Structure formats: C-alpha cells, structure tokens
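Hi V.,

Quick status before I head out on leave. The structure for the redesign project is tokenized and pasted below; the design run finished overnight.
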C-alpha cells in the first residue's frame, strides 16, 4: 500500500510483512475500555491477562536498593550474570532441564520479546511455523513479521481444545521450522499432560524442526495435571527453546522481564538479535526479578490460591447461564467460552462493550470463532458484576436478532 505524505509529492510504502500482521485485539479492546472509563463510563474489563495483585515486596525493595546503588547503566546484553545463574538453577531444579546453564539463558524485555527474538533468529522466507489453536493472539503476527508462514491446526472443543499427535504429525512438512506449544494455554487454560507432550516430542524428534515451549503460566495451575517442560526430554535437548517470565506469576507485567533457555546454536543467534535490537532489558527490573525468583515463592502461592478461588467462582456463575459451554481450566487465569447459537463473536463482544459496558475478547482473536475469553484476574466484586452483565447481554443480544 502506498501512502501520500501531506505536503510532499512522493509516496512511500512500508513493510509488507508488518502491514499484513494484525494488531493484538486484546490490547485494542483494553485500550478502548480504558478510554471509556476515562470518559466516566462504568466499564467492567475482563479482557486483559494481567494480575491485579501488587508486585512482591521483595522485588520492590530490591529495585529501590538498585536505584540507591546507582545500578542504572548498561548491563550485559543477555542479562546480568547473577540473574541468569538463578534462572538456570530454576530450569534445572524446577523444570528438569539438567543441561541448563547461565551461558544458555537470555533475559529480555518480557516473554513476548523472547518469543519474537527466537522466531527472528530461526525463520527464513518460505519457512512454516505450526501454531496450535486456540492460540495466543501474537503468535501468528510474530511469525508473519519474521517472514515465515503461520500454519494453524485447531483443537476440538470435545478434546478440551487440545491438538492431537496425529494432527501435529500431519501438519509437519519439510518447510516446518518450528512448532509453538503453550501449556497452560492462553486462552483456554487447558494443559497438556506429560504423556501428551512426550507424544509430541517423539514427532518433533523425528522431524527437522524446533519446539518453542511458552511456559509463562507454569506456576498458575489448579488441577491434578503437573506442568511438564519438553526440554527435560534428553532426545530434544538440541531442539527445544523454553520461554518464561516474571509477568504472570509474580504480578510484574510492567517490569517487562522475560527469560529463555536455548541450545548453543540457537542461543548464539537469539543473542545476536537482542544485541542488535534492544540490547539488555531494564537494569532495575533485572535486580527486582532476581529478588522475586529468590524470595517470592510465598507471594506466588498466595496469588495462586486466590486465582483458584476466583476460578471456582467464575465457573460456578458461568454454569448458571444458558446458551454457553466451557471447560474448567487447568491453569492460567482464563475461561474460554463457546456458544450454542452465537457465531459472530466479534459482533457480540462489540455489542457487550457498547451496550453493557463489558470488555471481553472474541474467540476470533485466538483463531477460534464462536467463542470468547474471560479473564478471572480480577476481584470477586468485578467478576460478579462482569458475569452478570454477560448473562444480561447474552439474553438481550439473542432477543435483538
């Protein structure tokens, strides 16, 4: 597309890859809701995946100490040594990645940047990246912006939205560069079991592609399913990139710290991408993250228990609303709702925001039309008000058609 610049007689085009990538609907809806609130409208937003808890005090104290110590200059572009050591220890002890070491850990400006850096380091024009739907909204856009083609395979509602090994095997081609796995899942909250991941691992091991494991919701689980990291499987040690971060479990979204572990040959290229784009993440946030990892376990458990209680409340209230169905999530802080009659989820969510002042995210944003995502990362009062508005809106929307 060409753009005419006011006052100029020339037309300039922009990157086709970036232009063809979609904007994140979750952020767009959240921004609209915030704008309406600023105008004095009583909007209930259950659209964004952001904990409403405070950052652990140990992290805030560490940040203050870092400021007072004038720790405000450049750090190693891959992150400070002590933080990378702590992350490597976490990967070894909590995730069973026995080969994890600080020299293979990169700290970035959020898990999102870790994923983007990885895709940028891996992908060439003509490559394919397999994405399991329902998917986090940014995966396809990132793949497109890195010059590759997103290949979406969808899980069925009856299988808890989880993709089967046969689906994965059928989707892999000689062009496949990477498979992205997200468990616990955003938006469904469902988790793949260890056996299911091992079945995927067998397929990946026989294929000429990588596995990018997005484990950002690892510590927020509620069912009997235990989180399992595919990088702990020895046969996959040279093929798995593991991504995590501080945003969700530690309520540190604004601090923008993510981290990843990668095999040597991938680490080298990802480090190059970060070094030539943003360099290191914020120095103060790195010190805060180090303290959170070392001292914040009690805070995490307190928040997890609260999320579990909110999940029960949310599911109990949703179960009383006719015309919708959902699975009780294993982790994260979302419930993914499917409808018996509504097919245009985008129109329905627009209707809810305009007429009932409730902000939710349509399933279309996650590659699953006819559904929507509700976040229970909100107070009990807010959840009750929001779900009551959803029930009223669903009934009114049906009567208006």
């Amino acid at each position: 597309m060409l753009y005419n610049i006011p006052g100029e007689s020339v037309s300039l085009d922009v990157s086709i890859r970036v232009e063809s990538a979609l904007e994140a609907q979750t952020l767009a809806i959240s921004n609209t809701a915030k704008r309406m609130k600023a105008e004095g409208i009583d909007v209930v937003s259950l659209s964004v995946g952001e904990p409403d808890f405070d950052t652990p005090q140990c992290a805030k104290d560490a940040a203050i100490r870092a400021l007072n110590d004038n720790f405000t200059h450049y750090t190693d572009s891959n992150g400070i040594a002590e933080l990378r050591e702590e992350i490597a220890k976490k990967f070894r002890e909590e995730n069973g990645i026995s080969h994890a070491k600080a020299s293979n850990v990169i700290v970035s400006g959020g898990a999102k940047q870790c994923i983007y850096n990885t895709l940028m380091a891996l992908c060439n024009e003509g490559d394919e990246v397999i994405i399991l739907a329902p998917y986090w909204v940014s995966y396809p856009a990132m793949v497109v912006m890195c010059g590759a083609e997103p290949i979406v395979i969808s899980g069925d509602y009856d299988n808890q939205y989880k993709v089967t090994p046969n689906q994965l095997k059928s989707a892999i081609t000689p062009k496949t560069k990477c498979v992205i796995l997200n468990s616990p899942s955003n938006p469904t909250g469902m988790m793949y079991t260890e056996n299911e991941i091992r079945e995927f691992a067998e397929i990946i091991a026989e294929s000429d592609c990588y596995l990018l494991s997005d484990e950002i919701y690892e510590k927020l689980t509620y069912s009997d399913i235990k989180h399992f990291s595919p990088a702990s499987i020895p046969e996959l040690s040279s093929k798995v990139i593991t991504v995590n971060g501080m945003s969700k479990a530690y309520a540190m979204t604004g601090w923008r710290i993510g981290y990843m572990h990668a095999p040597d040959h991938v680490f080298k290229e990802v480090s190059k991408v970060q070094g030539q784009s943003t360099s290191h993440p914020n120095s103060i946030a790195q010190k805060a993250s180090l303290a959170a990892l070392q001292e914040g376990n009690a805070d995490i458990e307190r928040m997890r228990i609260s999320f579990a209680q909110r999940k029960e409340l949310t599911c109990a209230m949703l179960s009383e609303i006719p015309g919708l169905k959902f699975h009780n999530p294993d982790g994260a802080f979302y419930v993914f709702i499917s409808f018996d009659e509504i097919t245009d989820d985008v129109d329905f969510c627009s209707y809810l925001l305009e007429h009932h002042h409730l902000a939710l995210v349509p399933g279309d944003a996650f590659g699953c039309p006819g559904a929507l995502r509700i976040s229970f990362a909100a107070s009990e009062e807010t959840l009750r008000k929001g779900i009551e508005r959803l029930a009223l809106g669903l009934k009114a929307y049906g009567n208006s058609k």
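Above is the designed sequence. The chain has a mean pLDDT of 94.

G. will cover questions while I'm gone.

Best,
W.
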